[in-house]
Every structure is written in C-alpha cells, then in structure tokens.
Amino acid sequence: MKGFILSLQSEFYKSRKTLGFWAAILLPLILTLLVFIGFYVKSEKMTNMPGILLWMRFSGAILGIMGSLLLPMFVIFVAYSVNSVEHKADTWKTLFSLPIAKWSVYSAKYLYALFLVILSLGLFALFTIGFGNLLGLLKPGLKFSEYHMEVMLLQVYFKLFLSALGILSIQFLLSLLWADFLKPMGIGFVCTIAGVIMATANWEYDFWFPYASPMMALKTMMPHTKGQNNSQMVIDIFTKDVFVSIVISAIVFIAGYYIVQKKSVK
Amino acid sequence: MVIQTEGLTFNFGSQTVVKSLSLQVPEGSIYGFLGPNGAGKTTTIKLLLNLLQTQEGSIRIFDLDFQTNRKEILSQVGSLIEQPAIYAHLTGKENLLNRAILLQISENRVDEMLELVHLTQAAHKKAGNYSLGMKQRLGIALALLSDPKLLILDEPTNGLDPNGIIEIRELLKKLVSKHNKTVFISSHLLAEIERMATHVGIINNGELLFQGKIKDLESISQPLVRIEANNTVDAANLLSKNGYHVIDVNDNYLAVTYQSKEKMGQINALLNKNGYTIYSIHKVQKDLEKLFLDITQTPNNERLYTIPTV
Question: What whole-number distance in Å separates Cα of residue B197 and Cα of residue B176?
Fold first, then answer.
C-alpha cells in the first residue's frame, strides 16, 4: 500500500508540467469559455427564455460537443499521455526495478489517469455552473437565476465518467504496451467513430461496445420531457451500457496487470 | 557472492542471446563485464534486475532468490541501464526528487548526489537540455541515490569526456574501497575495465569466455610492441631470429610481444643497427578481438576459471 501511495505521489510530481495534466484543466475551461462567449454575444435573443430552457441550452451546447467525440478522444489522450511520459524517457526499466511491487506501479498509474478524467469532467460541471451564473450576473436579462440544475449536471457528468471507463481501461493498456503514438490513437479513433455510428443508428447490441457508451449515455440522458410538464427530468445513471462499461473496465484493468507482469521491459 | 547465476539462458525467439551463463561476483569487487556490442551484456543485466523473465537457470543476489525476495533485493541495488532514463521535461534536481519520493529519501541526499556528480550548477536546468555526459552523470546520481550495496552499471562511461571517465572511475573505486560497495559494470572497452576492475567476466555471443581476477586476465592479455618501419617483413624476420615473438606483420607495421621497457629499447637498437628506419615504436594493449582469439585458443579448463569464494 505504501508503494502504491508513493507511486501515485510520483505520478503527480512528474506530470504536473506535462500537457496531459494541463489538458484536463484547459479543455473544460476553453470549451465552456467559448460557449459562454457565444451566449454573451447573442444574449439579446434569449432574454425572454425561461431559466430552465436557458440552462438546458447552455449545458446542452457544452455536453453536445463533449459527449460524442471529445470525451472519448480526451480519454484516449489521457491514457496515452500518462504512459508516454515513461515511453519517452525510457523509464519503464527504472520503474520496474524499484523496490516497489509492479502491481503498485501499474495501479497507481491507472488511478492517476482515472483522476485526470474525473478532474476534467468535474471541472466541466463546475465551469458550466459557474459560467451560467456569471452570464446571469453580467446580463440580468438572462434569467439563469430562475432555475438550478447543479445536482442534475453532476449526475450527468458522473454518468459520462462511468460510461468512459471501458474506453479508459482499453486505451490505457494499449498505450502501455505500445510506445508508438499512432497505434493506440488510431485504434481509439476508429473505434470512437464506430461507436458514434452504432449509437446514432440505435443498433440493438451497441451497449456491448464501450466506445459507444458516452454517446449512448448522452442520448438516453438528454433530459426527457414527460408529457406537457417540462420541468420533470429523468436521469437514469446505471443503465445497461454503463454496467457494461464498468465491467469491461475492471476486466481489462486486471488482465492488463497480468500482461504487464509477464511482459519483458525493453 | 553478491551475484551468482547458474546456467542462465535467454532466447529472443529462436535466437539464444545468453547461453548458460554462470556469473560469480564477490562482495567488495568491481566486476568488469566485458564484451563487444551485441554480446548479451544488456540482456544479462536486464535478467539480473528481473526486467526480463528468466527462462532457464537461476539468479541469486545477496544469496537471495529473486522471485521470493524481489523488494528486498531491489532496495539494495542501484542501476543504470543503457542510456540513462531521465524525464526530459523535469530539471536534473526534479528527476532526483521524483526518485527520492519513490524511495522515501530526503532532499539533502538529493543535493549531495548533485554535488557528487558535479551537477549542482545545472540542477535547475531541464534535463532534456543536458549534454550526453551530463545525462550520464545524472543517471549515475539516480543509481547512487538510495545508497545501494550493489551498483549495476551498463556502459556508464558512454558519452563521457576523458575527465568524466576518470571521475567516474575514481568514484567507483572509492565506493568499493571506502564504502564497501560492490560494482558490476559492463563495457566493450578492455582498457577501461583493466583500469578499475578487480574481477572480470568476458562474454561473447552470449557465452562466458573468461571469468576470474583481473591479474589472471593480464596473463592472457599481454600487451604488444607495435613498430612502424620501412621494411616490416624483413624486420619481422630479423626479430624472429633474435628470439622475439612476432604476433602480427603487415605492410605498415609489425607487432611483437611486450616483455619489458628494456627489451623494447633493445628491439629499437637492434633494428637501427641493421639499417631499418623506425618511424614509431610503442606499447599497445591487445584489442578485444585479439583477446577473444587468444582466449578461445587456450584449452577450456584453463580459461573458465572460477573465482574462489571470498
């Protein structure tokens, strides 16, 4: 356990100056900022909208971009970046000749990748809420203060996080095994496109394919309106695709350890 | 024995890279692991550190079995394999601090190491901008950081200038004599190993050709007198007739076995007296290739000499 904590500490220490770390912060900041600017400039068109609709539009604009393409690609990038630090510096050999169990080194690295995804999605939720409220303050005509969707946004992003777990485990293992950027990136990209197609085509078995999960999560979750009552929304976090994503993630994570243990360090 | 392997064999696919290697590295020695590029040195080192899975044979370090005592062994081993593993985006000091986090070592020790390898001035420079020699020194500092009992260094003087090489050599000697460390160092340069090692193992094509104390190697690797003269073939004949052992003759130079300084003077005088013009005469070490030939030509029982237990 001590080895695991030390490894995790070291992951923080060595990656705080890398793009992988800063991307987790900059991506949500830039994306929400851009949508914020868009709303700010076009605010006069929305002055008559009720608060709930404003929030839907604002968060929907961000979520729409995030869910389908950006989230899978971001996860692929994070999985790559935490491993490429070692590939580039040729440090696998030193990591695996430390008096620390290989299991600790491996799981600390995985947990760090997981942390970056949580950090990024958490910031998405935070910035969406923050910039939404800021819009309400700067443009009093926009009735953002009429409605609150903090809890719902957190649920949405939590579901997105769970739905991305399958991709994270698979991409983490691919990036660990291959030093080459193009291989895991290429495979990830093709799978993401395939996932988007599956999810949009409503293929009946799409929930088995982890790369389709984020898109499916968004589709099933985009606030349902029931009957005439617009204020009732249903978010079902633990759907079939989310379960599949979690299970695949756990299996690949454990299998990955056995592969790493048997693998020769170049 | 600090390192002891028996019948260590490793295959990459169908190619046998290490063949039935039986290393014996006594405590307090500088063990020079000598061999040309591609002889299997790095593979052996990776096997010793368990970076490659042992396929055949056994490895014992500090008389402990690796499989059951991995952590215990690795906590006493510092290593530098091939080019040093350094995070280019961190400074030299940050590289050491990162390792210090993992090994729970104080920052003072980090500063000491920087001082030791003369990187204090460059401590806050990005390691990616270091010269090859500086990277190598940082790699050595990383290996020494945990104050290990055993240092395993793979070609540590690669890329160092002559001053750097001398510094590293002196440092390693000091570590062994004053701090009772054991150093296992690989190299493809015979002269380098001869200058610092107490014990030598010679590997070629994955096979151990020789293992023993440095003085036993010296009896095999006798130096030569290399003479550049105007008529090398006739000069060689003359020297042969006068009882000198001619090793090599070609159009440019001839070589005879070195015996002593006085004998070298006598050779010079003899050739001069007989009308040969000598352009140069000097003592040279045998190169590795010739040494290998010599070793392989000696009968088997003489060459695989194992070190008596210390």
Answer: 10
